Amino acid sequence: MRPMRGFNRGGGGGFGGGFVGLESMAAKLAVALVAFSALFLATRGGQGVLLLLNPTDVLRGRVWELFTYAFIAPDPLGIIFGGIIIWSIGGFLESTWGSRRLLMASVGITVFAGLLTVLLALVMPMASAYAGGSVMTTVLWVAYGLVIGRGQANFWGIPLTGNWFAAIGAGFTVLRLLTAPSWQFLAPELFSLVLVFAYVRGASPKRLMLHLQHWRLQRQLRDRSKHLRVVGKERPPDRDQFLN
């Protein structure tokens, strides 16, 4: 898959792209995926399992697994294609969003999806080990398509709209879901699809806090209004009656 570096929101053709420099955030994320995955493969018979997300371990205090699992691809093909997708698609998103927002979307959503999986483990059985490299690549893939929208993207040489590109990314998760023993094995991926759609469409922690503050203010005003009394026009004024 070679994403396009340019696009036309009106539906016109784009032009081919490549990889951003090694100093970019996208390249650093790709290098981190390769490095942590290689470390996991070298130590998976021992301490390497501590890099995966185990909800039970996190509930016991191993909170670092929420972050390390995001950079684990459990097989060589996953490492290669994951690194390419993160570097290429991430580079486009970084040029559009900036480094900080790319980091929030890729790592932030992956970590939050893992956290939701851990919380779900409090009420139902979940899988015991999750590798989140596929979660991060899915997030970036779908985000890339949603950002382009009706503009033109490129899927293995086939021109299609960004929305269809995002749908293909979500479709890969659905196909994996059909072959998985149960949906719990893909819980982080399923959560990430919802989160990335909400994030690209404008949802963010800052906006959520603003809505929460607005709701609290409205509630305080309603509570105060319950203590107010309406004075009729025919009632003679009595200033002392309304003094506290």
From TrEMBL:
Its main location: membrane. It is a multi-pass membrane protein. It comes from Corallococcus praedator. Keywords: Hydrolase, Membrane, Protease, Transmembrane, Transmembrane helix. The lineage of its organism: Bacteria, Pseudomonadati, Myxococcota, Myxococcia, Myxococcales. The chain crosses the membrane at residues 29-46, 66-90, 102-123, 129-148, 155-177, 183-200. This is Rhomboid family intramembrane serine protease. Pfam families: DUF1751. InterPro entries: Rhomboid-like_sf, TMEM115/Pdh1/Rbl19. GO terms for biological process: proteolysis. One of its GO terms (molecular function) is peptidase activity. It is found in: Membrane.
